[in-house]
Every structure is written in C-alpha cells, then in structure tokens.
Amino acid sequence: MDHTEDDPELEAIRQRRMQELMGQGGGGGGAAQSREQQQAQEEQKREAEEHRQLMLARVLSSEARERLSRIALVKPEKARGVEDVILRSAQYGQITEKVSEERLIQLLEQINEQTQKKTKVTIQRRRNVFDDDE
C-alpha cells in the first residue's frame, strides 16, 4: 500500500529529471549531443596537446626533449610540471634560445630542491623502571 503512494511521487521526480535532461540536450537527441560534445572536447584536448608538443619542440633541443620524454615515462606529473615551467618561460620571453639538455637538468635540480620533502626523525628512548643510574 505504501508503494502505490510513493509511485506518483517517484513518477513526478522521474518526469522532472527527464525534462532537465532533455532541456540540457536540446530535445529528444540528448544522448547523441552529449556524445558529440564529448567527441568535440576530446578533439580540443588532442589539439591542445599537439599545440603544446609543437611549442616544446620549438623551445627544447632534441637532447632535452629526449631526456624529458624519459622522465615522463617514470614520473609523468614531474615531466608535465617541467613542461609547464618551460612553456610559461617561453611565453613571457624569458627563453631566447633553445633549452639545452644541461639547462633542462638545471631546471630539474631547481624544481627538485623546491619540491623536496624534508622529514625529520626523532628517536626517543623510553626509560625502563629498572634502568636506574644509581
């Protein structure tokens, strides 16, 4: 008996949700448009990544690109951060010539120093009741 009372309420919620989905999708083809939107977003990501790689190719020497790609295999987030620093520097005109492998190594060392976690371990020895110095 409770199920029949809940059904009109659930149906109203479903109807509202369907209207919201249809409103977002622009009508009956909501699923098709969301796929199209998703494909468009993926295409934009690919284009942005291609643009990024072209910019890096202009700024980095071939040796530096190789080293950065090797770093990306092991630590992709670190490589991405270094790429960001290099691209930002190039956009602001701070890089006037191609970044050599040696300069890339210097950048990596600077970033490592800035992001290095410093831990300190303190060992405290517990005194035993039977350890009297007397």
UniProtKB/TrEMBL annotation:
InterPro entries: PDCD5-like, PDCD5-like_sf. Residues 42-52 have a biased composition (Basic and acidic residues). Pfam families: dsDNA_bind. Gene3D superfamilies: PDCD5-like (1.10.8.140). Residues 1-52 are annotated as: Disordered. It comes from the Eukaryota. Residues 1-10 have a biased composition (Acidic residues). Residues 32-41 have a biased composition (Low complexity). Belongs to the PDCD5 family. This is Programmed cell death protein 5. It comes from Sphagnum troendelagicum. The lineage of its organism: Eukaryota, Viridiplantae, Streptophyta, Embryophyta, Bryophyta.
